[in-house]
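Section 3.1: Structural characterization of target chains.
Under the original work plan, the team committed to producing a structural model for every single-chain target entering the pipeline before any wet-lab resources were allocated. The record below documents one such target. The sequence was received from the expression subgroup and is listed exactly as submitted; it comprises 128 residues.
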Amino acid sequence: MKLLVTFSRKGGREPVIARTVKETGVLINVERAHIDSVAGEVLVDVPDSDSDLVCSKMREFGATVRILVDSVRRDEDECVDCGACISICPKDVFSFDDEWRLTLTEERCVLCGKCVPACPHHALSLMQ
């Protein structure tokens, strides 16, 4: 399960992810991170069975955690299955099926956003 974790460094420099791994024993895969001296936003992947435990522990450490159900969204009325998103995506989220229709494997998405401006029909958006 993908979790979007945000935190502020105003309260200190607490290693939220490291402490969560240490105290829960759950391995956390960091898929994307933007951290500076003030705050951070990290996209992590954890086993579905451990997501409640990880969310609870991170919140205990002062982080805000949002479970991602949808990552990238495709407006099927606007999408013309051109495939412009396929070549720009670093995680192979997009592909064609046997009938040359665009398909998405959302669990691969790391919210990089490269697909959104690449779509000539503005059919793609990231979750808010």
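The radius of gyration is 17 Å.
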